[in-house]
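Forum > Structural Biology > Help requests

Title: Can anyone predict the 3D structure of L-seryl-tRNA(Ser) seleniumtransferase?

Hi all, first post here. I have the sequence for L-seryl-tRNA(Ser) seleniumtransferase but no way to get a structure on my laptop. I'd be grateful if someone could post the structure tokens.
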Amino acid sequence: MINDITHTSVEPDWSWHDANGFKRVINVAGTMTGLGASVASVPEVARETAAATERFVDMHALQTLASDTIAELTGAEAGCMTASAGAAISLAVAGCITGLDPAHAEALPRNPGPKAGIAVQMGHLCEYGSSIKTGIELAGANVRVAGTATLCKDFQLSAVLDDETAAALYVVSHHVVHYGQIPFERFVRLAHEKGVPVIVDAASEYDLRSFLEKGADLVIYSGHKFLGGPTSGIIAGRRDLVRACYLQNIGIGRGMKIGKESIMGAIAAMRAWMKRDHAAIRAQENAALELWLDALRGIPGISAYRVPDPTGNPLERLQIDVDAEKLGAGAPVVVAAFGQRDPAIIVRGHEAELGYFQLDPCNLLPGQAPVVANALREEMMRGSWRNIDAEEALASSRNGGTDGYLHWLS
Ligand SMILES: *Cc1c(COP(=O)(O)O)cnc(C)c1O
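Reply #1:
Sure, ran it for you. Structure tokens for L-seryl-tRNA(Ser) seleniumtransferase below:
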């Protein structure tokens, strides 16, 4: 389904929000857990999800179908589905520790044994709503940090690739440090020289094949980011290790189990991805970017331009640099002001402290791009910023993710 997201004659549909009393939101931030992650990429995703809710099925058979679909999509030997990519990290780590030993799997996280280290470059120890360190440690593993925040040397990684290390984890994300880290192919070579398998967290990457082609043993993707499936995670890779990941359902995996409806919805999303008209979707996104560029032309203190995705995903965003002096407010305040509108416009503001924010067109729904364009002009011309406290707005770009949980029901 290709929606005409930029068409001015299409009214956004808020009936569901209104009927449930939810605040109307437009997502120009990207794939955000706090906004419900993604929407179904095609109607079949919703249809297959719904069909599964009304039937019983042998779950091993369903996971076999998922494995076949993941193999076709990624080129992996095998695959399995998990509750989320976050869960997949814990389960992949656990699988590398226990192999196919059910007693060992049952002993996690209490008693992981002597070979439970996970080697990670310090610059890759990021957070995506929770800390990746927590995800690793949930399996009973201990993180063996290589290097410093901004530099990892080969010998520093090699030093933690010993008999106590069960796997090495490589993270591909805009969240990680983007210089001074060991490049992927070299990371794989160093790990394999010591007989250590490599897990890749590529949760948010469009590139579904090259990490495996370049030697990764397990690769993790999110089913609900660009794939547009229901909330789910994908583990793809070596058959023996995928089986060991799946075995964790008798242990720590139980609290992270995925339902039949999410597996079927994710399979539909993977099938749709293989048939997707990527060029047509890109054209839609480009039209939205151009619409917004137009809306911002000639506003003093604002300079807007298209930027590529930092990890090489084939998409562009609109970057908006804010000259606080000329505009009368800095980027964190502008980000907060958009969030206070009705509908709330949630922009990509995690780097607002650097004086800019971005608009991501990939999750727009029909009729929403013009609403954003109007809001851009209105908000930027306003000149008064509704008593938004600049220091609080800045603090919120770091703490907001936690504060939302703390303030819930308070
Ligand atoms: C989003 C993300 C995750 C978590 O994915 P979920 O499927 O939402 O749990 C993990 N790692 C990275 C790098 C991510 O971007």
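The radius of gyration is 22 Å. DSSP finds 16 helices and twelve strands in the chain.
Shout if anything looks off.
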